[in-house]
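Hi R.,

Here's the input for the magnesium ion complex you asked about:
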Amino acid sequence: MVKIKKSWPLIIILLFFSFWLWWNKPQDNEVRSTTRLAMGTLFTVSTWGVTAHEEENAVSLVFARIKELELLASRQDPSSEVYKINRSGWETPAIVPNELSIVLEKSLDIWKLSHGAFDPGLGSLSDLWGFTQGVPAEPKIPAEKDILSWKAKRENSSEYGIHLEKSSTGMVTIRLANDSFALDLGAIAKGFALDQAMATLKRKGVQNALIIGGGDMVIAGSKGGKPWRIGIQHPRDHDKVMALAEITGDRAMATSGDYERFFMAEGQRYHHILDSQTGKPSRSGLISVSIQAGEAMIADALSTAVFVLGMEKGKALIAQFKDVEGMLVTENGERWKSPGFRGQWLEGP
Ligand code: AMP
Ligand code: MG
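And here is the predicted structure with magnesium ion in place:
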């Protein structure tokens, strides 16, 4: 009896030690996933080949980083930089933090290359359609006169109304011509956040990972030589996977679809991807566009741009980039994928 009592401290130390060993044991063949809400959508970080302890540390840093970027680009949060620019950007030029200037510069590049199909300044139009915070509670088509007055305000400005300037010291400022150019970075900011999230994981020594944010994703390494496998949703049958992408190494993929956020009214589908030429949801014929690229920011912006451009012009835009591949589906069931797209069709549209 006395002997057992005396051994208790040793037993406890041994128990602690075995727990510590278990916690730090490299789980080489295990995928660990953590899902949290961020940027108004679900983000899932999956890692491979790291311990539970390492994963937990790295993942908490990843979500802290995403939160930081959300504060930069959110259109709803009054403390965000984009919110402030949208409130006062046409009175005085606003100073743009470095990271936001990276996203804005890329946005303007893609605006130019897509001949305005990708439009980072249609915030007021998104508000008009009620797609600012998800889907409008009541399906409501805006009055034609409101769309026309938005367009008229735009036409008041002889050039595109987002002016970004860099001073000799490297400071970037932004000025908007008027509120019809209010920023909406919803088609690119998530991609940037995913790239930054992966960079955070890599800095913590995680080399094999998949991070998914609301259907867009960034990939690194593999699962012990096996590719990461990702399903692409069927645009009309939510329970079905339309295509399966199998990816190894550093790559990103984004999908834009008219099924992601929409409402039905008068028998028509009204979705969140807008065409600034018409002031209405894009009707290019495409219903799903997946883009693979080296960076999630590029994949994200191009998926939206190609969606608005339509099949032929969209293919031409993809062809302008050396390392960009696409998978496109039209409402008539036509489908196309570029030869280098890493993935296979499973179901017809
Ligand atoms: P995505 O789902 O990546 O195609 O992005 C769609 C989101 O980007 C929308 O919810 C809007 O916030 C914004 N957006 C809508 N239409 C456009 C467009 N033509 N160009 C750029 N951003 C857009
Ligand atoms: Mg996009």
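One thing worth noting: The two ends are 74 Å apart (CA to CA).

Cheers,
M.
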